[in-house]
Every structure is written in structure tokens, then in C-alpha cells.
Design a protein that fits this description.
Thioredoxin-like_sf, signal, alpha/beta, Glutaredoxin, 7 strands
Length: 183
């Protein structure tokens, strides 16, 4: 086969943009820095086509114990494809100033194994694109530990307040709905 015949389709694909752009929901387009790591999480690569729970967290919040419940939720459903993304934020003035302390709370105190980002803005004009899209589909978080359940197509199928525990029947129902959805 002629090398030019192979090269032209590759060049056209490169001009069209990333292969995932057409398949990746808008809310997952972008990267976020991992908590206490040198690399980033490519949201599309990691989460596109998967059921996902996104939660804004804070290390000094009275709801911090929900990390244990979120980890249990993740372990319970990860074989079904569920992912959990924790996004620490100081928007409500309850996140540690040092990401090392945030990491200790998550990883050491609560044994978190799901994905965590460096602290981000989740409300207002400065919110990261992920939370701007979540806000457009539902509403902005009103406090720490708001939970958003997203189906395989990138649509929010449930939004839950800080008071809703990770094992609450209504949250579990939304997670199971997201798992049952098809890409």
C-alpha cells in the first residue's frame, strides 16, 4: 500500500481534532491536576462512557466523614464501571490551605482510592468547566459534599445535597440508573 494513502486519512483526522472530541460529553472535556501528583486526569480518557459520581469535598467540613461512604460506594460498584471523582474546594472556606493536608485527610484518614483532584473552584464565575456544566444541567453546589450522579452519556441523573449520605437509597437508585444507561 502507498504511504501517501495511509498518511492522508491520518492528517485529516488530526485536523478534525482529538478522536474523543465527538464522543466525549462537554462536561468531561479537559484535564484536572491530580491531588498531590505530578500528572493530570484527562476527564474524557478516564470517565467518558462510564457512570460517574462527582463530589465537591473539603477537609475541614462537618461532612468529611462521607469520604468513608464514598469509598464504600466506589468499592461496591466499581466492577460495574462506576467511577468517583472528588474535587476539593475552598469555595465554602473549609478546605486546607496545603494540599498535603488535603491528601492526608483523603488517603490516610479515609483510605480513599477513587480519583481526587487538587483543590478547584466549583461555584461562581471562576468555577472549573466541569462544575459550570454541572450547574447548567442542575444547580451549583450550595455547600461541600454535593454529589452529582452522571450517566454514561454525560447527563446528570441525580444531584444530592451534603446531607444525603453516599448510601442513601435515592442516591443508590441514581447510581444504579447511571450504571444501567448505555453509551
Amino acid at each position: 500500500m502507498n504511504c501517501r494513502a495511509l498518511l492522508v486519512p491520518l492528517m485529516l483526522a488530526a485536523l478534525a481534532g482529538p478522536i474523543w472530541a465527538a464522543e466525549c460529553p462537554a462536561l468531561l472535556q479537559g484535564e484536572l491536576p491530580k491531588l498531590r501528583a505530578k500528572d493530570s486526569i484527562d476527564l474524557c480518557q478516564r470517565f467518558a462512557g462510564k457512570p460517574l459520581v462527582v463530589v465537591n469535598t473539603a477537609s475541614h467540613c462537618g461532612f468529611v466523614g462521607q469520604f468513608a461512604g464514598l469509598e464504600t460506594l466506589y468499592q461496591r460498584y466499581k466492577e460495574d464501571g462506576l467511577e468517583v471523582l472528588g474535587v476539593p474546594s475552598d469555595d465554602f472556606l473549609q478546605e486546607a490551605d496545603d494540599s498535603a493536608e488535603t491528601a492526608e485527610v483523603c488517603y490516610v484518614n479515609y483510605g480513599v482510592t477513587f480519583a481526587m483532584t487538587e483543590p478547584q473552584r466549583v461555584t461562581g464565575a471562576q468555577a472549573i468547566p466541569l462544575f459550570k456544566h454541572l450547574t447548567e444541567q442542575t444547580a451549583a453546589p450550595r455547600w461541600n459534599f454535593y454529589k452529582y450522579v452522571i450517566d454514561r452519556q454525560g447527563q446528570v441523573v441525580g444531584r444530592f445535597s451534603s446531607r444525603t449520605k453516599p448510601d442513601a437509597p435515592e442516591l443508590l437508585k441514581a447510581v444504579e440508573q447511571a450504571i444501567a444507561s448505555r453509551p
